[in-house]
């Protein structure tokens, strides 16, 4: 007999792929989770697949400009029980190292 902890997913998967071309870099991140189960093995929330996209340009070794698109396909899911994920959102920024 297998015991499953209540409220925890049975499987979580993460995968990332990065492509570089000169000063440009793009990364696609994916994560998937199977349904969460209660103590009797019944699903309490559906599984999901979500993806994020990172684009980065580094004109100099100490300067980077980036755009991140979170929840690329605007999936409706809960990463933590009772805490729904945000819809598609964007982060644009510049970072420097000194």
Summarize the structure.
By secondary structure, the protein is an all-beta fold. The protein has strands spanning 12-21, 24-33, 36-37, 43-45, 48-60, 63-70, 78-80, 83-84, 89-96. Helices cover 0% and strands 60% of the residues.
**What pattern of helices and strands is seen along the backbone?**
EEEEEEEEE
> What's the shape?
elongated
Helix content: under 10%
Question: How far is it from the N-terminal to the C-terminal residue, by CA?
Answer: 57 Å
Q: Provide the number of structural domains.
A: 1
* SS element count, helices: 0
Report what the structure shows.
The structure is a single chain. The protein has a 5-stranded antiparallel beta sheet with strand order 1-2-5-6-9, with no helix packed on it. Strand 7 (78-80) and strand 8 form a beta hairpin. The protein has 98 residues and is mainly β. The chain has one domain. It has strands at residues 12-21, 24-33, 36-37, 43-45, 48-60, 63-70, 78-80, 83-84, 89-96. The chain is elongated, with a radius of gyration of 18 Å.
């Amino acid at each position: 007999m297998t015991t499953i902890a209540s409220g925890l997913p049975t499987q979580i998967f993460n995968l990332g792929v990065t492509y570089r071309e000169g000063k440009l870099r793009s990364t696609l991140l994916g994560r998937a989770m199977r349904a969460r189960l209660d103590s009797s093995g019944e699903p309490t929330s559906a599984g999901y697949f979500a993806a994020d996209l990172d684009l980065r340009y580094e004109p100099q070794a100490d300067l980077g400009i980036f755009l991140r698109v979170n929840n690329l396909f605007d999936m409706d899911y809960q990463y933590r029980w009772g805490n729904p994920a945000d819809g598609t959102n964007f982060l644009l920024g510049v970072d420097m190292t000194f």
